[in-house]
Amino acid sequence: MSLALQFFIAGGIGLLLVMLVVGLWVTSQIREGVMRNSAATTALYVDSVIAPLLPDMRTSRELSDTVKRALDETLGQGALGKRLVSFKLWRRDGMILYAKDTALIGKRFEPNANLVAAFGGNVVAEYNDLDDDPESHEEKRVNAPLFEIYNPVREPWSGEVVAVSEFYEIADDFQTTLNAALWSSWLVVAGATATALALLSGIVFRGSHTIQTQRAALEAKVSELQAALSQNSTLRQRVQRASRRATAINERYLRRIGADLHDGPAQLVALAALRMDSPILLDSGSSSEQREAEIAGIHKTLGEAMREIRGICNGLVLPQIETQAVIDILRLAVSEHERRTSSSVALTVPARLPELGTSEKISIYRFVQEGLNNAWRHGKGRNQAVKAGVKSGRLIVEVMDGGPGFEPGKSEGLGLAGLRERIESIGGQFETLSGPQGTRLVISLSVEEQP
């Protein structure tokens, strides 16, 4: 799951628990507050009506019949009489001085906790929670919600609690008011909780989206880095292999050059040296014609040796190509081949090719030079062609001929092997395609198009 979804679930559960705790606490406070206010209001009304009828409770141990009749008439009239279920007037020792149920007058009961609290000067109220007191059987038979209030009766001049009035009031209106207050408090708490969850979720969802976007970008970068590392490792291994093969090929080149020099110019120079010791030149009796013929032969042999040395040097020495464009290098390689072999080569190039580094230029020149040499030697010079172009950000150079072809896997010579190593060492690709219709050598180098 995303961070936002995890927060929404965990935060929703946490805020729900907080809402329940706060809601229960608030409703309990509202319930107690409403009960306390209702009890205080009713107690104040009872005090204002009942207290003036009572005698001096400090000296009177019982109520007279006149006081009882006055209480009966007062408690049975008006709005209070309609809601009042029962009324008791308690003395501190637990004796009931007055009750609507006359059977309870004069009886003594053990004071309960509410009665004790009331004699301590507190107004005690309970809603629909009747105690198992023996004097409360009559109230329990009433099929209606009741509001029980213990109200201390104080002496006017001293404020001392001299009696406690206990009365039960039908609390239909109280229940309606309490339910409305509770519903309102729950709606406020639930609305505040939902608003807080929505605001926090919005912030977290936006942050989670940013994190996911950054994570995706980071994963993409990591993947690119891994791919680059893998590619670099592959290229490094290729370069190492190419370097080892290039070293071996260079040794083979040196051996071939040594063999060419030994078998060609060296033999001719040795022959010329032997002929310098010829009897014709050393014998004073030889005719001038014979001597001139021998000297001409020596000159011819030395000339052949020089031509072979120049041929070998022409294959080794590069022209100045560092400052030339790729198109000019291709034209130079083709023109040099045409001059040496007196053959024709079809050159196809676009109007412009991208610029390359010196290593790439040298590799292209050697590739065209070796490819055309092979086309002349092995392809009999038929249909020689050079083609260059750019495709998908890569420079493609091809050398083709119409010779009999060869099997690339087995007949690739030292020149082609060296070219392959040279091209692959600079990150290029080398491909040999050959068949009965001819041979095509292709190299591909990565370039950037210039505007």
UniProtKB/TrEMBL annotation:
Lineage, top ranks: Bacteria, Pseudomonadati, Pseudomonadota, Alphaproteobacteria, Hyphomicrobiales
Pfam families: HATPase_c, HisKA_3
One GO cellular component term: membrane
GO molecular function, a single term: ATP binding
Residue ranges annotated for the Histidine kinase/HSP90-like ATPase domain, each copy included: 359-449
Protein name: histidine kinase
Enzyme nomenclature, EC number: 2.7.13.3
Catalytic activity: ATP + protein L-histidine = ADP + protein N-phospho-L-histidine
